[in-house]
Amino acid sequence: MKCVVPMICLALATLVQAQISKPDEEMRAGNALEAILKDFESERYDEALGKLDLIDSQRPNDPVVLNLIGSIYIKKNDFVTARSVFEKSLEVAPGFFPSEYNLGELLFLKKEYSAARDHFQAMRSDDSRHELLQFKVVLCDILLGEFDRAGKVMKTIKYPGDSPAWYYAHAAWANQRRDTKKAREYIRGAKYIFGSKCALFDETFQTLGLNLN
Q1: Could you give the angle at which helices 199-207 and 131-143 cross, rounded to 10 degrees?
Q2: Helix crossing, 165-176 with 147-154: angle to 10°?
Q3: For an engineered disulfide with 141, which of 34, 134, 146, 162 has Cβ 3.0 to 4.6 Å away?
Q4: Domain stop point among 62, 93, 110
């Protein structure tokens, strides 16, 4: 779930800094967070977990920290532990979006597309225009062969929107119809406009073995 980590880690950084007052403490917290990110990006997941466990022991049951721990367990392919950690996060903070999203992502990674679709659709009850959730619902529908349903949801995605969702949904649609050239045009357009915001969407495609860059 590297795709979700930037959002989670920004939240963690904000939370850490909000709970400290001294410059030296802030520096130590920043250094700890930077070390965790480096471990994660270098796939040193056990090292990252060790540092997060220390933070968790100092501030137990923090939903942001728990969510990041769960994300690392996804990378370790320990879906059972990841699910339990996300659920613990939601017990502490019901409706916490990153953990709710990651529970759906677990289903998606397990190729349980119907259940994943239901999960993301249920999350849309709070925000039917959430572009990431719209994209995930469309992608699940395409993978399930529910093209009419996918098309209806695609029409609700804002263009150009605040994210690359519209472009990536149309790229997935074009790719399904074997129009790889058109699909790549959508991806190029998304990257030109949104830049680094495409990382989350790129990883979703990578999990499906789609290379449209």
Answers
A1: 20
A2: 160
A3: 146
A4: 110
Mean pLDDT per 10-residue section of the chain, whose length is 213 residues: 40 44 50 80 91 83 88 93 96 94 95 97 92 96 97 94 96 96 96 93 92 84
Report how far residue 8's alpha carbon sits from residue 170's, in angstroms, rounded to the nearest whole number: 27
CA separation for the pair 194, 120 (Å, rounded): 23
Q: Verify that 11 and 104 share a domain, yes or no.
A: yes
Tokens of 62: 């923090």
Question: Do the beta carbons of residue 17 and residue 23 sit within 8 Å?
Answer: no
pLDDT of residue 2: 40
Q: Are residues 151 and 82 in the same domain?
A: no
The structural domain count of the chain equals 2
CATH code for the domain of 14: 1.25.40.10
Distance of alpha carbon 147 from the chain centroid = 24
Residue with tokens 């949904």: 169
Q: Which pTM was predicted?
A: 0.84
Task: Return left, alpha or beta for 163; rule: phi > 0 is left, psi -120 to 50 is alpha, else beta.
Answer: beta
One domain for residues 177 and 93: no
